[in-house]
Design a protein that fits this description.
Helix content: 25-40%
Largest sheet: 10 strands, mixed
Shape: globular
Distance between the termini: 22 Å
Order of helices and strands: HHHHHHHEEEEHEHEHEEEEHHHHH
Amino acid sequence: MNELAQFLTYLIKVFALNRVVRTVRDSRPYPQIPTRPLLLSLLLGVVIRAGSYRDIAKQTKRRRWQHLIHWSARISEDAFYYVSERFYLEDLRQSLVGVNKQLKANKALESCKIYGLLFVSLDANEHFHSRSRCCPCCCQREIQETDAQGQKQTVIEYYHRYVFAQINGPKLNVLIDLEPIRPGEGEAEAALRLLGRIRRLYGPRFFDGVTIDSWYVQGPFLKALDQLGWAWIVVLKQERMEVFQEARALSAKVAPTQEFYDEVRQRKVKLWAVWDLHFSKTYGYGRQVGVVHSQEQWTETKVVGGKKTSQLVTSDWWWMASEKLRGYLALVIYEGGHRRWGIENKAFNELTQFYHLEHCYHHEPVAMLAQMLILMLGFVLFGAYAMLHSQQVRLGQVSLKELAQDLNLALEEGLRWEVWFDSG
């Protein structure tokens, strides 16, 4: 069986993709092209890593692409512009929710757990920026630039940012939702909207905790996380904070709580855990937190003057954790704190390099969000197939980029593509 046929068979068998694509609707009053061929084209465009609606429109001229989507004519890029503005976003989100819930039901997320706990990483990423194009949902900032005469001038730059929610582990990396940051607001406000919707769509027990960066060290935000019922781990960087100073003073007087060698990161680690600390008035005097200090040492080899030299490097990390994690080893907070970097390394970097994350397909608020949700859906489906099913990827015989190319080339092989998305 060719690679694309295996891919489609897996998605239909495991995720009922033929039913998933039928549940997504749009608000076009008199559609000339049904929603399903348009959505399938956009989804397949993600899988083969097409970079724009123009690229996807070119793909729709391929005879077997037309058989696959059940539409026997080329689809113009204007059609993608038009429908992307009219997708029901809730339908797209429900499709992503269904896929991720199926992954959890199939125990695929077990490898992402840390001592039985499943953590979601939150972080914001800039989609794109422009100095000429603007929409009602654009954020804006003033930047200084130097003109041709060497004079500094202030210009306005428009941009879009989103807060992403992601679960990652040594094997699998899944994106579960995102929320745009509105003009004039910060990451924390958008993150709370995102978490509130995730709780409604996924339920309160889909994951156990949230791991976040130092941007979210705010009493009201952490208090809201407690009310939502999740544990949390946050990077603690601001040394001026009383909780940081108190934790540093207390941990300096005692022996490490744990000492071990981290095989994955290849470093010696010492951990100190201090509990019963007060964070801030806005968090509440009755609420206590813990702080874990990690001292990590490893050897770096550098080439200086043509000679290799080894140097001992020491790094200190501080994380603040909610009371819900008090009964767990400090190692859980250490792993959860470091796991947050997965959203940078395994999501943003990969989406930017291979999936054109920073390219705006169509600068319209609903269209942008719809395309981002389709991108996330295609990313999760492709990742699930590659890491859970493809023997070639698991054995290291092909890379993810090569697998995407194989799926594209497989469209040229003669198979009865029209059968894959028949009703049923």
